[in-house]
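Homework-ish question, so no full write-ups if that breaks the rules, but can someone show me the predicted structure for this set?
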Amino acid sequence: AQSVAQPEDQVNVAEGNPLTVKCTYSVSGNPYLFWYVQYPNRGLQFLLKYITGDNLVKGSYGFEAEFNKSQTSFHLKKPSALVSDSALYFCAVRDNNNDMRFGAGTRLTVKP
Amino acid sequence: AAGVIQSPRHLIKEKRETATLKCYPIPRHDTVYWYQQGPGQDPQFLISFYEKMQSDKGSIPDRFSAQQFSDYHSELNMSSLELGDSALYFCASSLGRDAPYEQYFGPGTRLTVT
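A: Not a homework solution, just the prediction itself:
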């Protein structure tokens, strides 16, 4: 079955510094990978996806993710973090049945 | 742009009661998904519908049922509620069922069972 793992429960960065939220995947066949962000008491918001093509995917709010086949990773990155980026981030993979399987989530805290 | 609408946003029920959650997908989206997110947990897929037919089934308890109507809105019916059903229930919609299509999530319904 397809799955993703987020090895870090929490990531803390200072405002203005680059941020990375890690995700590794385990899939059979071509991976369809996604990143979602969840703000407190809000639904999940789509950030970006990887289907095929360029390994560097650009998404909303200045986020990007790099697909690395050899390392089976799909880390989320942003060159300069904002305090407003503080939220819960979920990596996800489309399962063979087309439903979404989420990682455990990583809480990002950006401090001023 | 129009987003996924869920109602109610909050719901408090007692054990053994029933609850109905509603989801209105983004206009023209034909696929609806239901997820359950327990406290501090990642969302778990429950069930999905494509063109008013059940498409896939995940970890949905037998006490729950769902359907998609002719206007593509969906309802999740939950009976014999248990304390463990307290969670945030998300609905998501997409245009098409196949893998490349991203899902857009509603704000969720927070169900509290007392």
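Now go work out the reasoning yourself. Hint: The mean pLDDT of chain A is 90.
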